[in-house]
Amino acid sequence: MKNQKNNIVLVPSDFTEIANTAIDHGIGVAKLLNYKLCILHIINKESKTMLKKEKSNEGELAKRLQVLADDIKAKHKIETDFILKEGSIFTDIAEVAKEIGANMIVLGTHGKVGVQHLTGSYAIKVVTSSTVPVIVVQERAFGEGYKNIVLPIDISLESKQKVKWAVYLAKNFNSTVHIITMNETDEFLARNIKNNLEQIKSILEQNNINYTAKIAYEKGGNFVKQVIHYADSIKADMITIMTAPDRLLPTFIVDTKDEQTIFNNSQIPVLCLNPLDIHIQVIGL
C-alpha cells in the first residue's frame, strides 16, 4: 500500500562512533514509541575502499550487522532488523525509508570527517530527500530522551506538522514544549506571530502538554542564534524545524538558517520535518 507506515525507525550506520550514537537514539525512540528498529548500511565507494583495506568482504558486513541487530534485540527487547544495500547515501536512505514504510529516520552526522562523508551539506541532502521526519544527531547521547523540546515560531507560515510532531513526541516522552517566538519589529508581523502563538498554546493545552512560551530577547536579531542560545540555556534535548517548506522550491534547497540549526555547536538533536501530511491524530488539528 502506497505510503503505508509500519512503525519503523530507520538508522543508517557506517559503524563509526557517531553512527553508534544515532543507533542509541534510534533504540530510545523505538522503545518509547513501540516501533521496530532497522539498521541500514549503504555500500558505496568509501565502504568498498574500507573493505579492501581491511581485506574483508560484503559477507563480513552482513555478519557484523546481524551481530549488532541480535545484540540490540537481546539487550533492549525491541524487534531489530538490518538492510545491506549497494548505492548512494544521498538517495538510497530516503528510498529505503519509503520502501520499508519507516515512520522516521535517525541520522548521525560527523561534522567534517566520516567514512561515508555524511557531513554538512551532504547530510542536508538526505534530510531534504526524505518524506518522513529525520532526527539529526551529533555526539550527544540519547540519555533520558527528549524531555525538553524547543518549538521556534517565526514569521513563516507554521505547518501543522511541526505542532503535530511536537505534541506526539511530548506525549510519548513526557516532554515539556518550550515555544520561542521571533521578536518582530513590524507591528503587523508581530500580531501574526502572536496569533500563531495563541493557537499553538491552545492546541498544547487541549492535549495536556506542559509548555513554556517566551519572546526572543533581541528585536530583529538573528533568530536562529537566539533559538540555539535559548535551547542551550534550558538544556533542551531537541529543536524542531521545517525543511523545504515551499513546494515550489527544489527539495535540495535548504535555508542557511536551517543548516545553522541542524549543525548547532551545542550538538542538540534536531527534528527536521517536511510539509507532507502525516497520519498522527492530534486534538485541535
Q: Can you characterise this structure?
A:
By secondary structure, the protein is α/β, with parallel strands linked by helices. It has two domains: 8-137, HUPs (Rossmann fold, 3-Layer(aba) Sandwich), CATH 3.40.50; 148-273, Rossmann fold (3-Layer(aba) Sandwich). The protein is built from nine helices and ten strands. The chain has helices at 17-33, 45-53, 58-76, 89-100, 120-129, 160-173, 187-206, 223-233, 256-262, and strands spanning 8-12, 36-43, 80-86, 104-108, 134-137, 148-153, 176-181, 210-215, 238-242, 270-273. A ten-stranded mixed beta sheet has the order 3-2-1-4-5-10-9-6-7-8, sandwiched between helices. The chain starts with 7 loop residues before the first strand and ends in a 12-residue tail after the last strand. Mean pLDDT is 85; it is low at 112-119 and 245-253.
Based on the coordinates given, report the CATH architecture of the largest domain. Answer: 3-Layer(aba) Sandwich
- Structural class comes to alpha/beta
Strand order of the largest sheet: 3-2-1-4-5-10-9-6-7-8
Order of helices and strands: EHEHHEHEHEEHEHEHEHE
How many structurally independent domains? 2
Distance between the termini: 25 Å
Provide the CATH topology of the largest domain. Rossmann fold
Round the Cα radius of gyration to an integer and report it: 19 Å
Poorly predicted residue ranges: 112-119, 245-253
Q: Report the CATH superfamily of the largest domain.
A: HUPs
Strand content: 15-25%
* Whole-number mean pLDDT: 85
Shape designation? elongated
Q: In CATH, what is the class of the largest domain? A: Alpha Beta
Q: Give the strand tally.
A: 10
